[in-house]
Design a protein that fits this description.
The protein contains six helices and seven strands, in the order H-E-E-H-E-E-H-E-H-E-H-E-H. By secondary structure, the protein is of the alpha/beta class. The chain has one domain: Rossmann fold. The protein has a seven-stranded mixed beta sheet, with helices on both faces. The chain starts with 12 loop residues before the first helix and ends in a 7-residue tail after the last helix. The model has no long low-confidence stretch (mean pLDDT 92). Bound molecules: guanosine-5'-triphosphate and magnesium ion. Residues 49-50, 71-72, 88 line the site of magnesium ion. Magnesium ion (MG) binds at residues 49-50, 71-72, 88.
């Protein structure tokens, strides 16, 4: 039997290891070989997935961001020091892409979550200004069904007043309770103001392979 790989639990690796773009996959055939432990970032278009990946690895623009939704058009794989893979996904719920494009992305994403053996966790990003919307709930149901443990991560909390943040935190606690695959701790972040990034690095560092 294979030995369990050693993990580090060292959040400074996100800063100190090199991070490189390895592949962009627009279909299943072009997914890179599944070898490293993997963390996938998913959520509505424009929620801040690419910005959060950049903030986590402390590189301003390794993942392309844009104020226009639909910026990320494929599954983008980023290799952190050959010890962890981060996957920046296209957003769901973006009205302006064609029906065919939408269903191709949906299938690709669905099959990825169904079949990716190295996937450790999904990070479901929710814009703190909007809270969870129907597409988010549908997606979290898919993760429940496919038994992929996921973190709920609020983004852009810099744009909220403290009272508004408290309100959305309360609502999201209920959302967590309603999904069997949701990890019990909620993460509240701002990629722009670097809030909550260290806490997330700490959490995800448990999946970084030891040397
Ligand atoms: P798609 O690839 O189109 O699905 O978008 P995405 O989820 O990757 O979003 P992206 O990271 O490209 O960011 C979308 C917009 O949100 C950009 O204009 C970012 O500058 C902005 N944004 C991202 N993170 C934050 C944040 O923490 N605070 C604020 N205020 N804006 C943010
Ligand atoms: Mg993106």
């Amino acid at each position: 039997m294979d030995e369990e790989p050693q993990r580090t639990g060292d959040p400074s690796l996100f800063r100190n290891l090199s991070c490189t773009f390895v592949a962009g996959a627009a279909n299943e055939e072009s997914l890179p070989h599944a070898s490293l432990p993997e963390i996938a970032f998913i959520g509505r278009s424009n929620v801040g997935k690419s910005s959060l990946v950049n903030a986590l690895v402390e590189k301003k623009s390794i993942a392309r961001t844009s104020q226009n939704p639909g910026a990320t058009k494929q599954l983008n794989f980023f290799n952190l020091g050959n010890r962890l893979m981060l996957v920046d996904m296209p957003g769901y719920g973006f009205a302006k892409v064609s029906k065919q494009q939408k269903s191709e992305w949906d299938n690709l994403i669905r099959n990825y979550f169904l079949g990716r053996t190295t996937l450790q966790r999904a990070c479901v990003l929710i814009d703190a200004r909007r809270g969870a919307m129907p597409h988010d709930h549908e997606f979290m149901e898919l993760l429940d069904e496919t038994a992929v443990i996921f973190y709920i991560i609020l983004t852009k909390i810099d744009a909220l007043k403290p009272s508004e943040l408290n309100e959305v935190l309360k609502t999201m606690e209920d959302t967590i309770k309603s999904h069997v695959a949701a990890f019990p701790k909620l993460f509240a972040t701002s990629a722009e103001k670097k809030i909550g990034i260290d806490t997330l690095q700490q959490e995800l560092s448990q999946f970084v392979l030891a040397e």
